[in-house]
Design goal:
about 10% helix, 4-stranded antiparallel beta sheet, Monooxygenase, mainly beta
């Protein structure tokens, strides 16, 4: 499929402000500073008011900064950032991408983690596979868990995997060997998160454990949920946990205390993501809730999925959500509206890497690259 400029961002004629207007006496830097407080559509509208503004607001540096701000997870370099911005927005809203599949697992894939251009996948087949996304090859298979691999987290040269066998394995990525086993949970470990020098694990035993990554010892056990822990997210020294009890708890890891309980979902909270001062949660109740982390209040509820919201993956102000209704939806978090819906197989976990959406589909991994501007779908 050939990519095209999104008509939403087309440039109108230039004519509104007269050349002798006092506004034309302002330095270029003033216009550039003002542009930082405007949304993209407003910048493009301002460009249409006079030829000088059109020239100033066409600048590549303005659009490079805006691109980095709105799509912080994309590290590619472009010669023309305005065109790149328009094309990426167009691709996201129209569901245009280049794609390829990675095959090797024998059962459903439950978890992903990414590091640089390396992807890690954990599966019900009890294996973890390591993929080089440049060569599209599986470069290692890590075996050792005695039950399904449910969660993954990676830090530097170390990978952590949580399993229904009640353990967390610690893998050295140079040797591809298991170097430690963290034991203490009484049921499966379905969520992992890393904050500084600590690993946090959430289990169906209703507890959250905090592990010191240097000593590999459990240094705290957080209790308060009335049912199993299904999802975790971290920001600064704050931990968020989603549970089958339909609540989200907010924990201060320094004091090891629960400082708030977010209520609003009508069923299990199985996916969480933090975006700045916003928390996003997906639930069995088929909705996504947007929470203001300052007020701890729900500020929006995103409705559109017809089944469980399984996984969330933010890309700047864009959110991807995967559901058991066999779709991945794309949401504009500025308007809280669904801007696209991608048909898929049995996708569960989602992760974003450099503008690529990575998901599970029928025991395979599908990689959708929304930044492949010159390729076909």
């Amino acid at each position: 499929m050939t990519h095209s400029i999104c008509s939403t961002y087309s440039s109108p004629s230039v004519s509104i402000i007269q050349q002798d207007s006092p506004i034309n006496q302002l330095p270029d830097d003033v216009f550039i500073d003002i542009s930082k407080y405007l949304n993209v559509k407003d910048i493009l509208s301002c460009r249409s008011t006079c030829k000088r503004l059109y020239t100033v607001l066409q600048g590549n540096m303005i659009w490079k900064d805006r691109f980095s701000s709105d799509f912080p997870g994309i590290n590619k370099k472009f010669n023309d950032y305005l065109s790149a911005y328009k094309l990426l927005y167009s691709n996201l809203t129209q569901g245009v991408y280049a794609s390829f599949d990675l095959q090797g697992h024998k059962s459903r894939i439950c978890a992903f983690a990414v590091l640089g251009n390396t992807l890690f996948s954990g599966s019900e087949d009890r294996m973890i596979k390591v993929w080089d996304l440049s060569s599209k090859e599986c470069i290692a298979t890590l075996r050792g868990h005695k039950d399904e691999v449910r969660s993954l987290a990676v830090l530097g040269n170390t990978l952590f995997s949580g399993s229904d066998d009640r353990t967390i394995k610690v893998w050295d990525l140079s040797s591809k060997k298991c170097i430690a086993i963290l034991q203490g949970h009484k049921r499966g470990v379905h969520a992992l998160a890393i904050l500084g020098s600590t690993l946090v694990s959430g289990s169906y035993d209703r507890t959250i454990k905090v592990w010191d990554l240097n000593s590999k010892e459990c240094i705290a056990t957080l209790q308060g949920h009335e049912d199993g822990i299904r999802s975790l997210a971290v920001s600064d020294s704050t931990l968020f946990s989603g549970s089958w009890d339909s609540t989200i708890k907010v924990w201060n890891l320094s004091s090891e205390k629960c400082i708030a309980t977010l209520q609003g979902h009508k069923d299990a909270v199985i996916s969480l993501a933090v975006l700045g001062k916003t928390l996003l949660s997906g639930s069995y109740d088929k909705t996504i809730k947007v929470w203001d982390l300052n007020s701890k209040e729900c500020v929006a509820t995103l409705r559109g999925h017809k089944d469980i919201v399984v996984s969330l993956a933010p890309l700047g102000n864009t959110l991807f959500s995967s559901s058991a209704d066999m779709t991945i939806k794309v949401w504009d978090l500025n308007s809280n509206k669904c801007i696209a819906s991608l048909q898929k197989g049995e996708d569960a976990s989602l992760v974003i890497l450099d503008g690529k959406l990575i998901s599970e589909s029928h025991c395979m991994i599908k990689v959708r690259d929304f930044t492949a501007f010159d390729q076909e779908e």
